[in-house]
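Re: the request from the purification team.
They wanted to know what the chain is likely to look like in 3D before they choose a buffer screen. I agreed to run a prediction and write the result into the notebook, where they can find it.
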Amino acid sequence: MKYPLYIFKRKVEDVLLLPFIALGRVLAYLNPLPKEYETFFFFPFYHTGGAEKVHALVTQAMGNDRCIIFFTRKSADENFYTDFEQSGCTIKNIAAYTDNKWLYFVNFMYRGMISGYINRQTLKPVLFNGQCNFGYKISPWIKNDVPQIELIHSFNTFSWIRLPFLSFISKTVMISKLRIEDHLQQYKRLDVPRQFNNKIEYIANGIQLPQQYHRKSIDGPLQVLYVGRGTEEKRVYLIAKMAAVAARQNLPVEFIFMGDVANAIPAELLPWCKLLGPKKDPAEIESIYQQAHVVIITSSTEGFPMVIEEGMANGCTIMSTPVGDIPYHVKHGTNGFLFSLTNNEELIISEGVEYLTRLCEHKNLLAEMGETNRKYAIENFGIAAFNNKYRQLFNQLRNQ
């Protein structure tokens, strides 16, 4: 379907939704917000995830008591909720009304109500959408002079959801140079007007660098760490299979998993996996990273995961599939290892064991890679640069 058809479909839907939008506007008038807000953030979740962590960092960079966050989908856990609270923003979880398939008409009314709140602000606010479907759906109902920013983490479902709403987006932030090219190619295939190319801006994710760093001990077993969810594209089972092969070969390696991954690992492979579960305390998370030697990723697709940045900052060697922007930062044999292919799972397992064997036999190489990564992270991933770029973007749009 070409771009003009996406626009036509959206306009038809807008006509059908108009009565619900009007009702929502009445509700907004009768139940106004208690105060003015300068920024409206829209996110689907606050549960454990790389995207959610980035979203929290954006709110911490830009948030204050004149900002409000709306969560629109039901979260699986509350691990990152306190990170959003640290922003100082007002938080509204409206998932009970906007994520209920049996009462979906309420979602339509909320589009009118929330857009009504935004349009009634005395001072022009900024709207920030972090891969939130609800955020896109309200965008046509926002005043034209209100800047709207979207954040896209990868080339994914939202790459298609966002198409009918491109004309309402003032700036598109992407965290991956490769994914920017993917979107530009998509625009070209669908005959999206070239003017939208210039709205894309690259801002790399930032992290809090470790307060202290202690050189890792390389005398004991090699600690291989996976951090993240157990969702399908992460293919955590490949790491578990790698652990079983390494155990059969008597390699001095421990495989550690931090995150909700228990259901992603077959029961017969669990004996070779140490599951820490989700962790919330930043000091504990940093300690786990600093004890690890290798951070591993076997994903079929990524943008540029924060796990890579955090692993590098804590002196870990990186082992990963060559997806997203990872090959821009991980150079095979220099500061980590890249698997030859993304879709050959047997090759990933065999190469992973081969690389771990090499590191077990050459501990000095392990130490050199870790130190190289630590210095690279300090130069490229500090949170200060991340915060400054977002502040510049918000200020630029606010002052237009």
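For the purification team: The mean pLDDT is 95.
Please add any questions underneath this entry.
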